[in-house]
Amino acid sequence: MSMSSFVAIGLVNPKSPTNVGGIMRAVGCYSADAVFYTGKRYELAASNGSAQYNTDTKRASSSIPLKKVESLLDAIAPDVKVVCVDLVEGAIPLPEFEHPEKAIYIFGPEDGTISQQVINNADAVVYVPTVGCMNLAASVNVLLYDRLAKSASIASDDLIRSSRDTNNRVRVKR
């Protein structure tokens, strides 16, 4: 991300270490700046060794902060726009949404939704048009991909070479 941009993910009381790990991998892939979360369920689940799965295989959590906060709205600077992402009546479909330069994208818990208070304080509320609800980590991936796809393109063979698995050397035959 450029110096003038800021992208954070806000998670309302997540419960699954698997989802949080998948989200950390996503923020690493899409160069987000931070992940904030509220509640106690994630820490409780992550403290149980059998519940923790290593889904952050790129170890993004070693360079991107994952921070517990009391309030997602208080966790960011005043110039950062609050964008709630959830299946909420009256929300903007993600394909029609124009992403702000600086944003925190707030997602509800796996088994709930974002509070009306947070929705009321949002600069925008968007949803991913699907039939049924998606997995939390999948939703974060879709949102971050949409932001990247609508920004200045970074696509190149150099990016492919630096991003792919070490066992992948396949090329398109020209």
Characterise the protein shown here.
It is a single chain. This protein has 174 residues and is of the alpha/beta class. Helix content is 26%, strand content 17%. It has helices at residues 17-29, 41-47, 116-120, 136-149, 157-163, and strands spanning 6-11, 34-37, 66-68, 81-85, 92-93, 102-107, 124-127. Strands 3-2-1-6-4-7-5 form a seven-stranded parallel beta sheet, with helices on one face. The longest helix has 14 residues, at 136-149. It is globular, with a radius of gyration of 17 Å. The relative contact order is 0.20. Keywords: Methyltransferase, S-adenosyl-L-methionine, Transferase. Residues 8-145 form the tRNA/rRNA methyltransferase SpoU type domain. Belongs to the class IV-like SAM-binding methyltransferase superfamily. RNA methyltransferase TrmH family. InterPro entries: Alpha/beta_knot_MTases, RNA_MeTrfase_TrmJ/LasT, SpoU_MeTrfase, tRNA_m1G_MTases_N.
